[in-house]
Amino acid sequence: MSKKQKFEIEKSDAEWQQCLSETQFGILRQHGTEHPGSSPLDKEAAPGTYHCAGCGTALFSSDHKFDAGCGWPSFFQPLEQTIGTSTDYKLIYPRTETHCAKCGGHLGHVFNDGPQPTGQRYCINGAALSFKGE
């Protein structure tokens, strides 16, 4: 995500720190990553919707969640027009980073090794999400 990119919801770092936990701030605002297997949302199987922990935007349906065995909540597609992407070179090779299209919060990455019908795996930090059951 470009620092110059504008989002519908914009706050200063101090404002984000007031409404996010330290872990959430580190992931959503500083592009961190939680340890694999550390989020209870990885094993969440109830029907519902996964929202951005920063701004509350609905991002993923439980209908699109699958167990990728990677230690992070994984989805084969997001809800329409809720996810933005950019190229991340932190591991030397390019990866596609995902962020909330409304607030710009870093969510994780998307890979082309997921199940059909999309073949994609949205590998998302659980701390970047909140879950609302049906």
Describe this structure in words.
Helix content is 10%, strand content 34%. With 134 residues, it is mainly beta. A hairpin with a 1-residue loop joins strand 5 and strand 6 (93-100). It has a single domain, classed as Peptide methionine sulfoxide reductase (Metal Binding Protein, Guanine Nucleotide Exchange Factor, Chain A, Beta Complex), CATH 2.170.150. It starts with 12 loop residues before the first helix and ends with a strand. The chain contains two helices and nine strands; from the N terminus they run H-H-E-E-E-E-E-E-E-E-E. It has helices at 13-19, 22-28, and strands spanning 48-52, 58-61, 65-66, 74-75, 83-91, 93-100, 106-111, 121-124, 129-133. The longest helix is centred in the first third of the chain and has 7 residues, at 13-19. The chain is globular. The strands form two sheets. A six-stranded antiparallel β-sheet has the order 3-4-8-7-6-5, with no helix packed on it. Strands 2-1-9 form a three-stranded antiparallel β-sheet, with no helix packed on it.
